[in-house]
Design a protein that fits this description.
Layout: E1 2-7, E2 13-19, E3 22-29, H1 35-50, E4 59-63, H2 69-86, E5 90-93, H3 95-100, E6 109-117, E7 120-129, E8 132-142, H4 144-152, E9 158-162, E10 176-178, H5 188-198, H6 219-228
Parallel strand pairs: 1-4, 4-5, 6-9, 9-10
Antiparallel strand pairs: 1-2, 2-3, 6-7, 7-8
Helix pairs in contact: 1-2
Amino acid sequence: MLVLAIDTATKACAVGLCRDGQILAEYKINMGMTHSEGLMPQLEQLLTRTGTTKDDIDLIAVSMGPGSFTGLRIGLATAEAIAYAWHKPLQGVATPLALAYNLPVEGIVLSPVLDAQKGNYYQALYEWQNGEVKELQSVQVVNKEQMLENLALQGKPAVILGECAKIDAAALPDWCRLAPDYLRLPQAAGTALAALKAYDPNAEKEIFGLEPYYIRKSEAEELWEQKYGKQ
C-alpha cells in the first residue's frame, strides 16, 4: 500500500511517501514559510521527483493535531480535497502518536510535546513495546512542572521531543533528555507509518468527516468569548 502523508501541525511543513512500511521519500521545510504557500508546491515536487501519479496512491494520511490551529486546517483541507478528487481513502493521525515514530526505541518513555501557548504544552506519553507503540498517557495540557511530574510517575528514562525549543536541557533531571534537533519535529514518515497501522480498509469513512484534534479553543475564540460571552 502506497501512502501519501501530510503534516502541517507545527511550523514545519512535511509531506512523504511510504510503501508497505518503507519510506520512499520525504520533503520537510522549516523555514518560516506559511503552509498555504509551501504545501502544494512540496506535494507537486514530491510526486514529480518520485514519478508518482494519483493512480499509484492507495491512502492519504494527515496529521490531526493538537498543534497550530491554522496549520491543521490547511493540512486537513488539502488532504480532504486530494482524497475527494482522487477518490482515495483518508486516514487521520494524532500528531503526538506520529512523533512517537521518530524514535522507535524500547526501554524509554517518549514524551511528544506541542506548544499550547501561554507557557503550556500538549503532552502525551508513549512507549515502544515488542515493536508496537503503546500509549501510556493521552494528551493533556500541562505546564513544564506538570510535564516532568507525569514523566517521573512512569519510573523510566524519558525523552522529550516535539516543540521543545523553550525547554532548558540543562535543567532537566538526569533521567530525562531532549531528543536530537533533527528528530524533534513531526516527520511525514511518522504520519504515514501511524496511518498505515491504523487504517482499516473495511471501515466506512466519510472523507469530510474528520475534525482537527484541538483540545482547547483558539486564542481568537477565547478573546471573543471574553468580549461577547458564550453563544
